[in-house]
């Protein structure tokens, strides 16, 4: 129970369905004085109090479990390491993978519980091949993207009471009818451990600033930076380049080279991505087919982005083709080629983002993007 309206209504529905329900709030912040401001931040003292009030109203036991140490190790430290490696991570995905549906679930099962119920908008379907994760009935509120990191074992112990609800307005109205004080509470949108939203400033306190060069695509030095972690792919403002482009058009960050500590800039059209690949991946249940054979799918690279048609496969990383962008511990990677006959190229793709693969409404799995190839590079070379 996060302290929000979704988890409060999910708990109420679980109670109403006849389950034995225990409310659990996760204490994840190592800053006990953290205070929520509107939609900024989550997992605060106020959120814990809201969750307790909801549990009291429902007449269920309520506990606060301190998982802050695991959260720091698996989410915060990973966030810092990914930025240090030139990637732009999504800590909410890592929290779902490592905390809410791993550390929490493991503890719950050890204590004799059957499942973890949350307020996520997604649905589960049991098939002869096992349980599958699908989009929620309400596309606009669908949250299956952030659950793409769940594995077959985790899905077997999940329960999403809100998955069939057509809209968030109905959930708020239901909360109002049930007398839950969080009925109109704003959703949280920021990274919980950076509640002021200043990611660059926060990173400056956790990563050493290493000045370096800003290059154009031909390798010419066009400026300098005071720390590559302060830049992200697609960024236009704040580059402070020493000279304008020959065509007079704005330049954008195209890539970040962590080993050489360089930032590469170029024209906006070179942000158009036709192929993405990554070596940190997982599958949401048994796929049911050979992943090493190219297959049709849809890929979604942001929580609120539209999925685009694509073709994907899992293939080994050949040592003579390994680059600084490949993960050192990865032996295979998922490669996805956008179907440019039916969709526009992806724009502003940053290594570190999560790509979730869908077949219809089913979540097949996900991977962290390590490499993004612009449209001008032949995707056939990647799939060769």
Characterise the protein shown here.
The protein folds into three domains: 5-177, 3-Layer(aba) Sandwich (Rossmann fold); 208-266, Adenine nucleotide alpha hydrolases-like domains (SH3 type barrels, Roll); 271-383, Elongation Factor Tu (Ef-tu), domain 3 (Beta Barrel), CATH 2.40.30. The chain is 23% helix and 26% strand. The chain has helices spanning 5-16, 45-58, 68-84, 91-110, 152-155, 168-177, 199-204, 379-383; strands at residues 23-27, 62-66, 116-117, 122-127, 130-135, 158-159, 212-215, 221-225, 252-257, 262-266, 272-278, 280-283, 295-300, 308-316, 332-338, 346-347, 354-359, 362-368, 371-374. Strands 4, 5, 11, 12, 13, 14, 15, 16, 17, 18 and 19 form an eleven-stranded antiparallel β-sheet that branches. A hairpin with a 2-residue loop joins strand 17 and strand 18 (362-368). Residues 35-41 have low confidence and may be disordered.
SSE blueprint:
Layout: H1 5-16, E1 23-27, H2 45-58, E2 62-66, H3 68-84, H4 91-110, E3 116-117, E4 122-127, E5 130-135, H5 152-155, E6 158-159, H6 168-177, H7 199-204, E7 212-215, E8 221-225, E9 252-257, E10 262-266, E11 272-278, E12 280-283, E13 295-300, E14 308-316, E15 332-338, E16 346-347, E17 354-359, E18 362-368, E19 371-374, H8 379-383
Parallel strand pairs: 1-2, 3-6, 7-10
Antiparallel strand pairs: 4-5, 5-18, 7-8, 9-10, 11-15, 11-16, 11-19, 12-18, 13-14, 13-17, 14-15, 17-18
Helix pairs in contact: 1-2, 1-6, 3-4
User: Number of helix segments?
Assistant: 8
The largest pleated sheet is described as: 11 strands, antiparallel
Helix content: 10-25%
Number of domains: 3
> How would you classify the helix and strand content by structural class?
alpha+beta
CATH topology of the largest domain: Rossmann fold
Report the sheet-strand fraction.
Answer: 25-35%
Give the strand tally.
Answer: 19
- Round the Cα radius of gyration to an integer and report it: 22 Å
State the name of the first-level CATH class of the largest domain.
Alpha Beta
SSE topology string: HEHEHHEEEHEHHEEEEEEEEEEEEEH
**Uncertain residue ranges:** 35-41
- The CATH architecture classification of the largest domain is 3-Layer(aba) Sandwich
What is the average of the pLDDT values? 89
CATH superfamily of the largest domain: HUPs
**Global morphology:** globular
Distance between the termini: 48 Å
